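Lab notes, practical 5.
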Amino acid sequence: MKKLLIPSILFFSLSSCNFNKEQAVDHKGSSDQSLCFCQKEAIAKKTELEYGIREQVKFLDEEEELQSIQSKLTEYTIPALSLSVIEHGEISWSELYQNPAFATQSELDCSTIFQAASLSKPVTYMAALRMEAAGAIDMDRDIESYLKDFHLPEGEQSAENPVTFRNLFSHTSGISRGGYLGYDQDSALPSDLDILKGSPGVNTPAIQVALPPNFTLSYSGGGYTLAELALQDIFQAEFPEIMDQWILRPLQMKHSLFDQPLPDSLAPRVAKGHDTNGKMINGGWNNYPQQAAAGLWSTSQDMALFLIEIYKAYHGKSALFTQAEIEAMLDQQREGHVYGFIIQRAGNAISLTHYGGNVGYRSGMTINLTNGNGLVYLINSDNGADLGNELLLSASAVYDWPHFKQTAVSRGEISEDSLQALAGDYKWNDQIDLSLEFDTKHKQIVLVFPNGDRYGLCPVQSNGLQLIHPKTGVMISFRKEDALEVFSLYGQKAVRKRF
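Output from the prediction step:
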């Protein structure tokens, strides 16, 4: 059973619908009107989603308490959420939700821009796909042949197995893994060349080809920065101009840009980023000179247009991408990923999903290529990941998606003494220190990660001893034959440390 918790006071933004889509304005202009809208036939499901937010874990035989988006903004201390839902290859509705507890936050609308974070990567890749079709680049050519002022240090690459645009964009180049934290607004921004070299003043190490290209999938923001530099060398233009020409303008993404730093004139249109405590990031946001990897500013509507074009191309109805290009892309799946997208299959359904996270921002997007259903969320808080996951779960339930399903378990019972006996320090995967703490107030075990994340666990019925985190579904499992000295997490063992 589901119990909807609908507050007696209807907060602004929920269930409001403007039936006519407003004309989007160019990102160099401004608009006095909100661009939020919903189609008339979408009202009921929009309301159902707004008041039907559920967590990852569903306990069987228990009444499920669904919450509202607004209550979730309060729970997670999130200032704002931009959300667009896609049905059958069209934007069904878009909305901007604000938390009234953030009194210093100006009134936002659907033209407000957020940092899209790593959603920048697939936008960059799809632009490069157009460049290849036009004969401007060769995805399989040695990247060295395009570079003017930078050359990769000697590493695991070779003339027979070089670093290329293709393996850079697919995270298989072998270049050292990692992402970017950006630079606060009081700091000078390094050039791409400085970033790649790890010059003084750069907050990331120099890139290196640590593994043979095409050997394994390994996330690399540095790989995208190398591609960014190569594209600028090829076109002899700044990266934002290149992206505007090849992808943003053709897709009518009129509120999107890769400019870093952001022009002063656009500062009033920014949803300012916030940390986990609800404190605004210094200056409102960090700057990301690594534009291909993390520098896109956008709206959920614009990112929805991007996804819709991929859906159209999959069905042979895009003016920008061919059906053959999308099919070839999908055929290059590796470890459940394709060019940074997570690829999911269920029967005939194929979905592409991508997530992002910059300092003060979290983002996510998904599209079912078979039926054109999906959504985009942009959140201006470091706390946004849990809400983003819950939006996907809840949309899946409301719109009957084949993916993003809840984890159904039956609650178990474990004595307080037995729980206390699990507390201790553990070494996970022979590398990472984890700990289990007993929370005396809530009578539960808490899984603590090295970064300080704390997951309160509930026991579930099983043959062994399993505990689960209701919000995320993170589960640990003990086996009695290991004398409760070892648990598994994500398929890897964590062994109790003895001093």
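Observations recorded by the TA: Residues 223 and 326 are 22 Å apart (CA to CA). The mean pLDDT is 91.
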